[in-house]
Specification:
The complex is a heterodimer of chains A (about 500) and B (about 400).
Chain A lengths: L12 H4 L7 E8 L3 H14 L6 E2 L5 E2 L3 E7 L1 H6 L12 H5 L4 H7 L30 E7 L2 H17 L3 E10 L54 E3 L9 E2 L6 E3 L5 E10 L1 H11 L3 H12 L45 H5 L9 H8 L5 E2 L2 E3 L16 E8 L6 H10 L35 E3 L6 E3 L6 E11 L2 H8 L6
Antiparallel strand pairs in A: 1-5, 1-6, 2-3, 4-5, 7-9, 8-9, 10-13, 10-16, 11-13, 12-13, 14-15
Helix pairs in contact in A: 2-12
Chain B lengths: L2 E9 L5 H13 L15 E9 L9 E9 L2 H20 L13 H11 L9 E5 L6 H18 L2 H13 L16 H13 L17 H6 L5 E9 L4 H16 L14 E9 L4 E9 L2 H11 L1 H8 L13 H11 L5 E4 L6 H18 L5 E2 L4 E2 L4
Antiparallel strand pairs in B: 1-3, 2-3, 2-8, 4-6, 5-7, 6-7, 9-10
The chains are: A alpha+beta (about 500), B alpha+beta (about 400).
Chain lengths: ~500, ~400
Amino acid sequence: MANTEFKPDEIQGIIVSGYAHLLYSAYLFLRFGEIGAGKQWLAEIAKETTTSQYDKSSDGSPLKPDCALNIAFTCEGVRALGYPPDSLATFAEEFRQGMVEQSRSRRLGDTGPNAPDKWEIGGTQGSQDPASAPGQIDVLLILQSKTQDELRAFCDAHKERFSRCGLIEAAPKQVGYLAPDGKEHFGFTDGISQPEIEGSPKKTKYDDAPIVAGEFLLGYKNSYGSFPPTPTVPATADPFNNLRLSADEPGARDFGENGSYLVFRKLEQDVAGFRRYFRDNFSDPTQCALMQAKFVGRWQDGTPLALSPLSPDPKLTAAPQNNRFLYADKDPQGFGCPIGSHIRRTNPRDSVRADPHGSLVSVNRHRIIRRGVSYGERLPADTYTDDGKPRGLLFFCINADIQRQFEFVQQTWVNDPKFHGLYNDPDPLIANNGARYGEPIDPSSTDSYNMTVQSYPVRTRLTGIPRFVTVRGGAYFFLPSISALYFLAGVKKHL
Amino acid sequence: MTQDEFTVILNIKSDRVKHVTALLTDIGQDIQGNKTMRFQTTPSTHFARWVVLDPTASGGGSRLLFSCWFDGLLKDYLAELAASIGPGIDTIWTNCEGYQPGCAIDGSNLYAFVIQNMVTTGFFRPQIFLCAFPGLTAKRIQACARIREAFDTLLDTEQAQQLVKQVAALLPPPKPPQPTVENPTSWWSTFTTNLANRLVGVQPGYVAPNTNVQTDPKLLNVEDQVTQNQMTIISAIKPQIIPRLALRIALWVGHRNQPTRFGTLSNVATIHLARWIIIDNGKNLLFESNYDGSWESYIDDFGDLASLGMNVIWANCTGFPKGGSLDIEAFKKVIRDHQIPAQVFYSAYPDQTVANIYYDKQITEGLENLLNTEDVGSFAAGVLGSGI
């Protein structure tokens, strides 16, 4: 049995909203101690988990929450809570294997300097088996507040509570923020292109076709018109009947319904190197800004190059104008927005196949909802030397099928140097390039890649693109529905 | 010169399975550097694979599949193989039943052995044999790649950029390409699609409940090592008369209705070669292909661009989803469940995509006009006017 309409009180809030008003976020990576105490803790947390059901104010308009709490689990976490071992196989295989499985690392570009044995969070640190790695994570607790002070108090209160129940921090806590100007560390407006969910209570920013809910939520129809595979448990494992009976599997209950998969990546940005690379290679500041825009596919203010290839246009920086474009009619050859630029390959829209409509249908099977935030303080403007302070993006994305969505984007579009007929051009901004600018190539990676800027009559080909982004951590999580949280805690859901 | 393919499947001696698997795995893990089987010394080879086939449910022991895609005639190619990697093939086949040690070292003996043991086609055993670049030799593909690379490097120089700009200034501006809009589906094609699906028992729209794909780790380990990947699938043909007949019709029609656009296989621009062929006295269907990029995108292309083709062929085999190839989870599952990891996968141009080969060839042909000495002379050589 599956849903035809949204169940906002069952769905964790982070799936539906990025909480643009909650500027500060903390991410706590926890491991269970004594499991009985852990379940008690979870039973309390389940009550407090922010859902996508908003309270109403006196005039009937939705009240935005003052803070948000969301919770997700790794496969180890679900296992630790006593999920029936034989039923673990009903979870997607990439979730069970984890992000650090060897062939997966190859496909995600997590090799050389990006390799999981060098990660701060979720890495292998010398052990190939995530279950025995010293930093094994069970739970991700996401706390979001309006101010830094509120967030600190929120974290302290929760630390006190989970510690009392035997949970420990398995990896360093991460704190991030949404910059008031909406820009990420390289200086570009971020988070513009975001798929709209069909039937979501959240109001639509763009007027193009929304993506069906089943691409981001289990229990709803996906872009193939079918229901995404969902984890189940034997009905006997759910004595409190928290979960709905599965329509497909007799005697089973649907654990996954109204839940989703969450991908986490900690991406460190080399801002000084990025600035130096462009300063050193393009002396004229106008040319410098243009080439930066060519790498990204947008001007710093968010203007899409496909619409305004020669200069930023203030009329094209706000929604919906900043995202209302396709490539096949405006810029089929990449003369405005290069074929290999970051935004064109992370969402190629109607340009991956000869037939634009077919292309759009195909591309929309590989979309993700991004929930990233920046971490680390900004490198002051006009600074070209590294201050040694870490900064970057805490990348989060939500999808119903990690392999078909996040991993596909990463492998087939971002990392593939052969994307769209190119020869040796992976994503110029975020791919696993050999060395940071001005540094010797890491001996574990000898790759040297190009960026081709299409132009008539002759292209510019930049060779030996440096590494601007390094992966510092990552993991796959499951974001259960509220009912499924109660199931994991082993208590009856409070109505 | 035409491209051709041969496949030989032999029974492995029961006590030699582990040994031969280990031998081949070692070769596969160092395909360029290994000493046993240096395919790069055989200039006519496009692709080759060695695949250990586990015992089937229907009995029998482990078997060994060896197949090569090559330029020219089988006889000449086998002479080339015998002279270069004959001893390597011998080392492997010595572990198989029915093979006379030493046979692979001599061209004519090898030819006789392959002819006797290879998978054959015939009127009742049709095959689909698809090739993105018919007539293009492996040597030529490699040469074009080097020429393109040299040309790209030249084009990076200021002088060359100026030259191109001067030329362009004298030429009319190019017209922007028109995106191809797919013709609206005609009632006739809808009718034939429905009819074809119905004949093979596919119900488009049916979705198998909660299908969970599990992938053999051995497949994941060997995938995505280079730009190209290989796929080997063996599926059991349904024993009833109708599917057996329908499969033969599908193969027969499919082989004769190949798309003619160079560089694409049935609209899919990422497949180098593909072949469906009936093996094991009509019991099983073997599929072999070489494609670019990720498995996920290959499956995408199957579903988006060649869904009917997949249905009318594979629905005649056991285990194919009732909803056809657009029941995507079930389709992925049947592919993964039947896919067999190759211990050895060789490509003469492992990092060239179909698109790369296409443009390499275009550029090379353009430059060749500079050197052409046949009709009017060679501009580059200064031999001019002789044929005007």
